[in-house]
Amino acid sequence: MDKQFQGGKAYGFLKSQQDEKLNSINETFLSDPQYAEEEDLASKLEMFKSKYMEFDLNDKGEIDLMGLKRMLEKLGVAKTHLELKKMMSEVVGGSTQDNICYNDFLKMMLGKKNAILKLILMFEGMGKDQEATNAGPPSRKTFSDLP
Q1: Which of 3, 66, 122, 134 has a CA between 20 and 30 Å from the CA of residue 74?
Q2: Low-confidence residues of the chain: pLDDT under 50
């Protein structure tokens, strides 16, 4: 960094750097013939990028074990330490790595294999779609509706 930023400016600078880095990875996936037939690839990549940035808590471009734990807790799917380690190894291909890089995250989300984390994130998205269709005020209750 040329300039010394503090507080919110430093955070904004880090996030903009991260955004640029993830955009360049997205460009690589867009030009990869392996994903050429993927429907709405550009919009999916944008959605995956924002989800990834939300849970990259250390701002190093990786989701660590604590970031994964917080992600799942926020989604209402708390997991034990061993379950988190298993999910992590599924995403990074069985290596002893303790971080999920964006490349691995995209390969998991766009790949044919159904990793546990992928399923959780997909169902979380579906739940939001269903909530949106049930929008509006709740129906009026009467005394006969009470248990």
Answers
A1: 134
A2: 1-2, 129-133
